[in-house]
Specification:
The protein contains 2 helices and 8 strands. The protein has 165 residues and is mainly beta. Strands 3, 4, 5, 6, 7 and 8 form a 6-stranded mixed sheet that branches. Bound molecules: zinc ion. Zinc ion binds next to loops.
Length: 165
């Protein structure tokens, strides 16, 4: 894991490997401290945003050209996932939306995340937020999944519709 601590974030002592919960994990060498880096995945909320007859995909700052994904982001503390996904929609595209349904929950091992993906219907005028390089509209009939991360949610979304748009 790239975000692994080298020193204990609680007391500053060196971390060593120790078995906790059945496998070796970085843990504080100070018995009195007890810190263990569990490395639990971080939940991310994502939205398949329907806007009129189109789905809106976004491109984050610094992303490779032509790479577009779903509106997505981390939850705030104590935030309900449904509220978080609508907040991300406001922040990224300046749109109000309603959650239609949960599409699915997808582990994304590469980034140690769990993606919670919703189908969201949005309305209003798009205003691209600070975090984004841009966005694009894709007619529902032209939407194609990509084979990683939020693309798995797009595949399930399309399968559930049985190709009917
Ligand atoms: Zn410690």
């Amino acid at each position: 894991m790239s975000d692994a601590f080298r020193f204990c974030p609680r007391c500053g002592a060196a971390l060593t490997q120790a078995v906790h919960g059945g496998r070796p994990r970085p843990a504080c060498a100070q018995a009195s401290c007890g810190f263990v880096q569990w490395g639990n995945p971080t939940p991310v909320v994502a939205a398949i945003v329907e806007h009129g007859d189109d789905v809106l995909l976004v491109r984050g700052k610094g992303w490779p050209e032509k790479l577009y994904g779903l509106v997505s982001g981390f939850l705030e503390a104590a935030e309900k996932p449904e509220d978080g996904v609508l907040r991300e929609l406001r922040e990224e595209l300046g749109l109000e939306g309603t959650v239609v349904r949960l599409v699915g929950v997808y582990p994304f091992e590469l980034r140690n995340e769990v993606i919670v993906a919703y189908h969201v219907r949005a309305s209003g005028e798009v205003t691209v937020g600070d975090e984004l390089e841009g966005y694009k509209r894709v007619p529902r009939s032209k939407l194609r999944p990509w084979p990683f991360g939020t693309g798995l949610a797009v595949a399930d979304f399309l399968a559930a519709r049985g190709g009917v748009t």
